[in-house]
Amino acid sequence: MGLKTLDKISAALQSRPLELEQLRKEGKKVVGWLAYNIPEEIIYALGLIPIRVGQGGDGRLVEVGARHISTKNCVFVRQALGQFAEKTDPYIQQLDLVAIDATCIQLYRLEELINFYFGYKTVVLGVPRNFATKEGHEYFRKEVEFFTKKLEEFAGVTLEQSKLEEAIDIYDGIREAIKTLYKYQSLDNAPLSWREVSSVINAGYNLDRAHYLELLKELIVEAEAKLSEPSRRREVEARIFLSGSLIPPGDTKLVDIIEQLGGRIVGDDLWSGLNFFLNLEIKEPTPYGVADAYLDRVPHGSLPYLDLKSDGRLANLKHQLQEFGADGIIYHTLRYCDAFTFKAGETKEVLGKLPFLEIHTEYSGSDFEAIRTRVEAFIEMIKSKKEIAELV
Amino acid sequence: MSFSYNYFAGVDVGSLAAKAVILKDGDIFATGLLKSGVNSVESGLSALNLALDAAGLKKEDLTYIVGTGYGRVSAPYANKAVTEITCHAKGANYLHPTVRTIIDMGGQDCKAIRIDEDGAVVDFAMNDKCAAGTGRFLEVMAEVFKVKLDDLGAIALSATDTVPMSSTCTVFAESETISLVARGEKPENILNGIHHSIANRIAGLFSRVGIASDVFFSGGVAKNTGMKSAIEQALKVTIVRPEIDPQLIGALGAAVIARSFAKKEGLWA
Ligand code: SF4
Q1: A331 CA from centroid of ligand 1 (Å)
Q2: Number of CB pairs, chain A paired with chain B, less than 8 A apart
Q3: What pLDDT, on the 0 to 100 scale, is given for residue A391?
Q4: What is the DSSP string of A290-320?
Q5: Percentage of chain B surpassing pLDDT 90?
Q6: A-proximal residues of B, 187-216, CB under 8 Å
Q7: Domains and CATH numbers, chain B
Q8: CA–CA separation, A20 vs A31, rounded Å?
Q9: pLDDT in tens, A199-226
Q10: How far is CA B248 from CA A274, B31, B33, B145, B218, in A?
Q11: How confident is the model at residue B2 (pLDDT cuts 50, 70, 90)?
């Protein structure tokens, strides 16, 4: 039996576009955002409604996007561009402003394109490459300050410290709750699956954050009640960890294949997954404090390695692999996602002996069988390590 | 006095050929190999029947059947399906327990597989993109030169020079080849260039998984002596020759795994 709160969350999601329409009629404004470093707390504290946009898995929309850019651009960006071009997505229809950060240069270009071709009102947040230095921090502080000013003008209000504190509390609560759910989904007696947690995360980006936090709390209580039920014995399982390019809502190909073949996803370090919620500690409720916290968390793959040995993304990856008891890692890269494709080889070497499978794909079904064979062999390899030793 | 043996079969349906191997207890007893058609179930069954006829057995005599290759997903005659990667590993290990690296070049893809002393896969990589470096690619080249596929390698080995081939896409390589011929290049030198260009691409596959001795070459393309030699040069290794048709290695591995499953499921002691 699934958890009831999950149904509640999907029901809330169903009615959200209409709700947004109504809120806009009442004068509220919706800010669609994309990427990794947009400080949502500030959007929320200004009384604006943050909605994360961008989906995957739709080859047709990719083609629509590709009318405006090269087919050699990242497939996620092509689809996002297709969505902005078509404007049939119920959330895109509600956007008053689009905020995009320049963590990944391809997304930054998306901002320019949607403004140029389709007239969306946009705002960009610069992100330093040398993010660990004092200069990098200073730059980002100024960027967040500028970003805040732009939003203040747009919202017609000034950022109040008390409102920002409130927002930070809500977001801290959400981050903690997501971490808890991740822990639960990886347990032997998991009350919910990785896929379910992933859809909870995706739902959260569209729902009202305070309401979402309430739902998360409810979900955790319900999940904890299930945790006390006797643990089901699982067969020898292949515990798979996902890494690499994002897996946005709508892109279910790889996850479907893994699950169909009996693999169990137990964790990820995707920016569309857990990483987004990790290590974000806002010490001072000001735009500067927010800027420092965002810059100090696990770096996005499109930022450079400053030092391979102390690289935060790799250190986090190693830690999460242990934390979730992963048997192997599937490193997923999207076609023309340079950020993660460039890093695949090094990531594999740094991780040493852990079974590692690279899957390079895009949003079409043509490579379904090829991926299936690889994933199946990978699962066999993991299971044989655990089981076939006694078999053959 | 009557002896009762156990028979296990592996059936490997690839894009160009269907193969079957029957083990009698632990030994290779019979094999079957034919061109595969569009219907993968029929192709698999035909290969199996061929091996059964050669063995003088009926399907009911088989204790366990494992299906592999792209046809494994619809193989109603098999008890289980296992990927060709795992099967090639087991097949190579069965023949040569010292093998640690396998190059498998089949009809539509090419794989680099690393295995341990038990024949378990420890890492692998597959060519991603297209027919380059596969049996299908070589078939097209044989058609371009109007020679038999089986003679391609020997012709390449008779070359006095290597004409570099820049295209790896089958369609482009075909037109590049035609223009090279028009330019007056000798067929054997062009073919030599084609074999080396494929071998270099295969070497790229190994950059991720590494190489360790002994190195084994399986799949239909492994029959091509020119390809074997080009790969040996590109990877700077000596390739171990299988004593059976290298195209049968996947089916052999499937049969070995069938025997293990039968044992695990208590069907064979
Ligand atoms: S990080 Fe990769 S997937 Fe994400 S926007 Fe950039 S190029 Fe595309």
Answers
A1: 14
A2: 59
A3: 47
A4: HHHHHHHSSPPTTSPPS-TTT-HHHHHHHHH
A5: 54
A6: 207-208
A7: 1-96+248-269 (3.30.420.40), 98-241 (3.30.420.40)
A8: 11
A9: 999 999 999 999 999 999 999 999 999 9
A10: 45, 8, 8, 27, 8
A11: very low
CA–CA dist B258, B263 (Å, integer): 9
pLDDT digits (tens, 9 = 90+) for B109-144: 889 999 999 999 999 999 856 666 677 888 888 888
Distance B241 CA to ligand 1 centre (A): 45
Ligand 1 nearest atom to the CA of residue A302, by list position: 1
Q: Does the beta carbon of A356 lie under 8 angstroms from any beta carbon of chain B?
A: yes
Residue A202 φ then ψ, to 5°: -65, -40
Mean pLDDT, rounded, for A32-44: 96
Facing A369 at nearest CB: one of B70, B84, B123: B70
**End-to-end Cα, chain B, rounded Å:** 20
CA distances from A6 to A204, A215, A217, B127 (A): 12, 9, 12, 40
pLDDT more than 70, % of chain A: 97
Q: Please, which residues bridge with residue A328 across strands?
A: A240
B86 and A CB contact within 8 Å:
yes
Say if residue A389's pLDDT is above 60. Answer: no
Contacts of B67 in chain A (CB under 8 A): none
Task: Spell out which residues line ligand 1, taking CB within 6 angstroms.
Answer: A 74, 76-77, 104, 106-107, 245-246, 302, 334, 337-340
**pTM: predicted TM-score of the whole model, two decimal places:** 0.90
ω into residue B27 within 30 of 0, thus cis?
A: no
- For residue A1, the model assigns a pLDDT of 59
Mutate to test the pocket of ligand 1, among A108, A276, A337 (most ligand atoms within 8 A of CB): A337
CA distance A373 to A357: 12
Instruction: Give the pLDDT of residue B68.
Output: 96
pLDDT tier for residue B80 given thresholds of 50, 70 and 90: very high
User: Which of A127, A245, A333 has most ligand 1 atoms within 8 Å of its beta carbon, as the pocket-test mutant?
Assistant: A245
The tally of CA atoms less than 13 A away on the side-chain side of residue B30 is 17
Query: What is the structure's pLDDT at A113?
Result: 95
Residues 253-272 of A with CB under 8 A from B: none
User: B119: phi > 0 → left, psi -120 to 50 → alpha, else beta; which?
Assistant: left
pLDDT higher than 90, residue A346: no
**Residue ranges of the domains in chain A?**
232-391
CATH classification code of A232-391: 3.40.50.11900
